[in-house]
Automatic annotation (TrEMBL):
Lineage: Bacteria, Bacillati, Chloroflexota, Ktedonobacteria, Ktedonobacterales
InterPro entries, per the entry: GrpB/CoaE (IPR007344), NT_sf (IPR043519)
Recorded superkingdom: Bacteria
Protein name: GrpB family protein
Pfam families xrefs: GrpB
């Protein structure tokens, strides 16, 4: 399912302020969510140094499972986040053999007083929880792959700036190609997620 709102398909050069902007958001989330959040991670293109991206900070909150969803929604709502009810899961890679619930998530729109942010809540140990952290770390370790990924995103945004569906029709399978290489890299290097970012 497509993500909720893209301000515009405007890919800009990497901004060195992005990590600190994430840290400010994560600090507020950590204070509010406490132990309900097992991890708070900076994900997406703004989390990869040097990578061009949309000027939207992607945040992943990892929870144990979705049994405390009502509490989570209440806490985030009190901070000004809006639950996007129509989004219930991530893009499922081709030929995936597991349960569709492996890609379940909860998504929130940022508070109106906060810089543009996508807040994704995913459950510990599910493929879609590991995917963005591994994807990020792989691109951080492979600058050529990161630069090529940026070139494709920039070309898509320039040629079809008003066609969000077209952008994701190309970007989703591109990410699936990158993550396959990332899985091999993770196996070879015995990669494990590092400490939570927030």
């Amino acid at each position: 399912m497509r993500f909720f709102e893209v301000l515009m398909l405007n890919i800009i050069s990497y901004n060195t302020a992005w990590p600190q902007e994430f840290a400010t958001i994560a600090q507020q989330l950590r204070a509010a969510l406490g132990n309900l959040a097992l991890r708070i991670d900076h994900i997406g293109s703004t989390s990869v140094p040097g990578l061009a991206a949309k000027d939207i900070i992607d945040v992943q909150v990892t929870v144990q499972d979705f049994t405390h969803t009502a509490q989570l929604i209440d806490i985030l709502s009190s901070l000004g986040y809006t639950w996007i009810e129509r989004i219930t899961g991530d893009h499922v890679p081709p030929n995936y053999q597991g349960a569709e619930t492996d890609w379940q998530k909860i998504v929130f729109r940022h508070p109106t007083t906060q810089r543009p942010t996508n807040l994704h809540v995913r459950a510990q140990g599910r493929p879609n929880q590991r995917y963005p952290i591994l994807f990020r770390d792989y691109l951080r370790a492979h600058p050529v792959a990161s630069a090529a990924y940026a070139q494709i995103k920039q070309a898509l945004s320039q040629r079809h700036p008003d066609d969000v569906d077209f952008y994701y029709d190309i970007k989703d399978p591109l990410c699936d190609i990158v993550i396959e290489a990332a899985y091999d890299w993770a196996h070879t290097t015995n990669w494990q997620p590092g400490p939570s970012d927030g």
